[in-house]
Design brief:
alpha+beta, two-stranded antiparallel ribbon, 9 strands, seven-stranded mixed sheet, 141 residues, 3 helices
């Protein structure tokens, strides 16, 4: 009985600690030039562990989902199970380069980029997104 009580107290302590933690910020990403929505639920990877993991371990990326990695000049898809679209941005959120349907086990680089947004495959095609377009990144929780 004492072991069960201790286990329950440990569980309650962990739950209480997580309640105070701030949720990870998310983004809505719109193409201002084309007046289209690229994604409504984009995670931000701006810290070491999250940047290293990226989309690894996921089975898929649903339409409307994505990952904004910053800073970032290159992306690999080694270990991934699905293709993705890539949008490379400068510091002003203007698109420098796009790559559609990047398959697993590939490498993509844009040395002049400040960040990259990984999106569900087909997003670039569906939204007619092109280099030179300006994006709006709107945070929400």
């Amino acid at each position: 009985m004492n072991l069960l009580r201790r286990t329950l107290l440990d569980l309650l302590d962990r739950l209480t600690q997580h309640r105070g933690a701030r949720p990870d910020p998310r983004l809505r990403v719109s193409n201002l030039t084309r007046q289209t929505l690229l994604a409504s639920n984009v995670e931000v990877a701006d810290k070491g562990a999250k940047r290293r993991k990226g989309l690894l371990g996921r089975e898929r990326l649903s339409p409307g989902e994505g990952l904004w990695i910053l800073p970032c000049e290159a992306v690999h898809t080694f270990g991934m199970q699905f293709p993705i679209d890539l949008v490379y941005l400068d510091r002003s959120h203007r698109i420098i380069k796009v790559r559609s349907d990047v398959l697993p086990r590939r490498l993509s680089v844009c040395l002049s980029a400040h960040s990259v947004i990984e999106l569900a495959s087909g997003t670039i095609r569906d939204t007619q997104t092109r280099p030179g377009d300006s994006l709006n990144l709107e945070f929400f929780i």
